[in-house]
Amino acid sequence: MLTLFHAPGACSMGIVFLLEELGVDYQLAPVDLRTGAQHAPEFRQTNPKGKVPALRLDDGAVLTEFQAIACWLCRSHGAPGLWPESAMAEARLLERLDFIVGSIHARGFTFLAMPQKFTADPGAQDALRALGRREIETGFATLAAQWEAVPRTPDRIGPDDAALFYVFVWARALGLALPGPLAAHADALLARPAARVAMQGLADH
Ligand SMILES: N[C@@H](CCC(=O)N[C@@H](CS)C(=O)NCC(=O)O)C(=O)O
């Protein structure tokens, strides 16, 4: 059975969401980021990067990095047609996914919510928070402007939806407004039964 190393409220909830949507059998291995369990030698043996998500496969191999895990799950466990056939459609999907995880999450939310990871200087922390907020706002505006061009099949959840899911949860928790089409998509994703499972434990964080 697949084992997902996960912390409630972390980006790994996007992978829980996807596992639920795909109907894959899995178990969760909790990693308590608040107590620094990601730095403990036992977890470092699983993921030397000290981050969640990490996914242990049936043969013992461990996949890391949100995009890699989400794409592997959709390609190996998704219904026919979930993964794009054409090279261009695949490239566009990867382009969106990397923008959500690599820019909106990694620069936007990390700077906004955790400036203390980068500097102890309170003034510099404020500047990082402001930078993070701008990255999120411009990132969401960019996604909204391209929204019409994105092929969508209602009820078919792909890797980009899994990434959108967790940044939407974070945006709503921080009271950040989402532009029109994204707000509607957030409502739809958050209403799905998989969202309830993925958000378990969130209230404690
Ligand atoms: N590039 C990684 C980033 C994952 C990441 O930032 N995970 C955070 C939780 S959202 C984490 O594990 N942080 C623990 C730490 O940095 O100590 C990915 O895409 O999977």
UniProtKB/TrEMBL annotation:
The lineage of its organism: Bacteria, Pseudomonadati, Pseudomonadota, Alphaproteobacteria, Rhodobacterales. This is Glutathione S-transferase. Keywords: Transferase. Pfam families: GST_N_2. Gene3D superfamilies: 1.20.1050.10, Glutaredoxin. PANTHER family: GLUTATHIONE S-TRANSFERASE GSTA, GLUTATHIONE S-TRANSFERASE-RELATED. The keyword Transferase applies. Residues 1-81 form the GST N-terminal domain. GO terms for molecular function: transferase activity.
